[in-house]
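Handout, section 4.2: multi-component inputs.
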Amino acid sequence: MTRKKKKGKHIKKSNKRISKSKLLIVALGVLLVGFFLFKGFKFTINGAVEIKENITVLAEAVFGPGYDKSNVNKEKQFDLEDENKDKKKKHVVYIDVGHGGSDVGYKSPGGATEKDLDMQISKLVSNRLSSQGDISVIVSRSTDVNLSHSERVEDGNKQNADIFVSIHMTANEDTAAEGVQTFYRVNSTDASDELATLVQKSIVSYVDLKDRGPKPFTFDVLKDNAMPAILIECGFLSNPTEEKKLTNPDFQKDLAEGISQGILSFLDVQG
Ligand SMILES: [Zn+2]
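Output:
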């Protein structure tokens, strides 16, 4: 009997113990779920676009379609519109397409015209950068028009661009002269040299062109820019071998990728 009683007591005791630890597990579970819900909510706040969409969907479900979305924003405690702007377009890149109109730039013995090649490369770079999603690209010209150096610089400044990239070809009496070179303003203190270095380095890693390095030289389009500014001379149209490369669509694509990747590296570093 005693033995039985003891056994029963023991069982009862251990039952009690089990329910206590069960409670503890449940409490821990609730805490954990609560913690992750909170983390998730914080994450959603960071994803401003997501939460805005959720609110809109919710508002439309409650108030019907056409609910005034602007009111949703106004009623929020935090500034969704500003966060959206930042998320949408983080960087503004100004691509200055060399020459144009009656200013044809260099003309190769083979008949290639610099202004057209500048346009072709610039278009490829613009498309590549625009595909990033967080970069807004502005070009100095999208048609064959004349533009002065100051018009280009002023436009870039007015557009509040983060960087200014001028795209050119070059030529030399010495038809053996070859290679790509990236210029930045002499005595620049705004990271123009850093931008030039990164872009130059990237180009020569993508295409087979002689590396003439980054070099300080104050072209007119690099004079009064309010942001880091560079001018790329993609190659020598006076060199028949280089002309062949520069007019080849596959080569142009790789060249544009090299320029774009250099720009992206710079924007990454700048944050
Ligand atoms: Zn030029």
